Predict the 3D structure of the following.
Amino acid sequence: MSLENDAISVDVGIKLRQLRKERGLSIRALARASGISANALSMIERGRSSPTVSTLYKLAAALGVPITAIFAVEAAQEDVVFLSRQNRTRVPFPRGLWEGLGGERFSGRVEPFALTLESGASSGPHPMTHTGHEFVLCLRGQLEYTVRGEHFRLEAGDSLLFRSHLKHRWRNPGPTVTEAIFVLSGFVEGERPSHVHLVSGRGGEEE
């Protein structure tokens, strides 16, 4: 199973054009810096072509921004957020898919999101930390968490709750796809800890 082609629910072309122009780069200049052809880049910006995950990472690196900048949801922060399934922000990364569950638009300090992970997917070789607390509920498959050096194996229905300043990382150790819900709360105002998981997920496979 591959998640590379899952729909991305933001207009990537418009966002890439905005980021490029903010940095005063021509299409040819960004093409040289990223290794993506000028023609391919033009097609992406005009919405005529859908970039692969690897292409987006190359473009983000060339623009000097995290991958999350391409998918940033610029919306008013609300006290009540209803989000239909088809309107979720979806960001594919190598061997996985991140889905926002409304935290991007919520005025409070809580960020729920879902991760779908192929077999072998992980947050990479280095542990992550952020402020607040982290709750994880495994819905399908297996999810292994390492928190402060202690290993926890979650299966469908199992949950884990811990303080997020403790070094932690995750991986799918099983042979099937894993689905899990994450809820990050109590973090410092202005921090987006869910992005830490998304950027870490660039590691793709366990190392």
